[in-house]
Amino acid sequence: MKITYYGHSALLVETEQAKVIIDPFLSGNPNSGISPDDITVDAVLLTHGHSDHLGDAVQIAKQNDCPIFAVFELAEYCRMKGAKVKHMNIGGKHIYDAITVKYTQAFHSSSIQEGDVWIYAGQPAGILLTIEGKTLFHAGDTALFSDLRLIGERTAIDLAALPIGDMLTMGPDDALLAARWLQADKVIPLHYNTFPDIAQDAMDFCDRLRQEGIEGFPLKAGESIEI
């Protein structure tokens, strides 16, 4: 499994059998380094409806004739915008060709702004993505919560992607504890340095992970790892 980071919380996951993008905030993200026009995937996965996660999902799904996986209300919004969708909800699992997707809790909010109107986009979520026997946990935007320990106990996670930006999500201290609870030996930090209010030192965070026996990957946009 190859995982490429495109800034903020966007990850492209590739195996021989499938390609998936999660939270494709690309065209509006100064740190993405890629255009949504260049994305070729079999599915789009969304953690919640905020613009820095919904991003270019509808465009990417339409140009690839592939579905968007999202919590029910957000999936319906994407469907009304013309995309194919898979309606998910917290705790549910779906197998789609070579991809297995399970939605978990996240403690955050989820909405979409259109003009002066805010649209409810269902509950925020984390995502367990399994392809070819490898499992990635994308925590989405979340605070630290104790059931992360349960997720780690019930699922063999090969790689966890965790927000560290603070202010809008958990910060580095809480993310370090989340990594321990998830029992993942590899972690990618997400959701930092896109805006001044979420500036963090990812190298320092990964150094702290290393002291816990966890390998951290402070990827720059366009950089990849393989697991």
Automatic annotation (TrEMBL):
<comment type="function">
    <text>Counteracts the endogenous Pycsar antiviral defense system. Phosphodiesterase that enables metal-dependent hydrolysis of host cyclic nucleotide Pycsar defense signals such as cCMP and cUMP.</text>
</comment>
<keyword id="KW-0378">Hydrolase</keyword>
<comment type="similarity">
    <text>Belongs to the UPF0173 family.</text>
</comment>
<protein>
    <recommendedName>
        <fullName>UPF0173 metal-dependent hydrolase PAECIP111894_00593</fullName>
    </recommendedName>
</protein>
<dbReference type="Pfam" id="PF13483">
    <property type="entry name" value="Lactamase_B_3"/>
</dbReference>
<dbReference type="InterPro" id="IPR022877">
    <property type="entry name" value="UPF0173"/>
</dbReference>
<dbReference type="InterPro" id="IPR050114">
    <property type="entry name" value="UPF0173_UPF0282_UlaG_hydrolase"/>
</dbReference>
<feature type="domain" description="Metallo-beta-lactamase">
    <location>
        <begin position="7"/>
        <end position="191"/>
    </location>
</feature>
<dbReference type="InterPro" id="IPR001279">
    <property type="entry name" value="Metallo-B-lactamas"/>
</dbReference>
<dbReference type="InterPro" id="IPR036866">
    <property type="entry name" value="RibonucZ/Hydroxyglut_hydro"/>
</dbReference>
